[in-house]
User: What shape does this take?
Amino acid sequence: MFDIICTFGGSDKFYSILDFQKLPDSDIEKLRYSLVCPDCRKQAFYRKKSVDGKKACFGSRYCTCREPTPSSQRQREVGNATEVKQIIAESDTIEISYDSDRTSSAGNEASGISGVSDITQTSNKKVHSIKSEQKRVPKVSLEKILHSLIRGTGLATSDTIIPIGKYKYKAKNLFVKFPDAEPMTKNAHRFYWGTLYNSNNDIEWFNPAECRDVGIPLGSLREIILEKFNISDTESLEGAAIIFSGRCHWNKDKTKKIIKICDSERIFISLPD
Assistant: This one.
């Protein structure tokens, strides 16, 4: 994106990338949470000039309306989101697959099989009439779920059932966008998702782009996560999309919500182009 709308203070102001990058760092820090696409008005981000020579730019993980020729990554995201939309339209239950390279949709893998056997005896011979009915539950990777949430294909507000262990959750309760995160008192599963503004210099914390009052510490999982998603510097995280299983709680002063990442398996990060 070459230009953007800033809604800070309740009024719209247009900025070109040339003008925005000239602002003082303190102003950029203040305004960057209020950037939206001029056409669809979906959340946008600002990425500063990188040390390896990439130009400063605006972007958005939530829209493609300003991309005359979408990148291969964007095409993949849209394709995944469309697939998930179709799956939840045809099935009232899905399972989450944590292996992004191995996913299956309806009809590819049976989650449970129930069978009824009717036995009759004629002339000392047993004739078995087997009636079995298979109930197949689609498995969807965390990557595809993230792309569906980012693209707004209805999963975030869906009543689709998602079993986790011995519990069953509705998608609209299981998947929580960062601005909607609330400290939890019950031991319930939640997957938090959204986009990242940046991290601290040592990549020990992720900072969401959608809100200021949430922080995501990597803790002891730092090295594993950085290696798993090939994260080498803070600049690569600007505009990244993320989803993970986590727990939300207040910081000591109850001024900021902290979301702790549960493990390195139930997480997916989609770095920007």
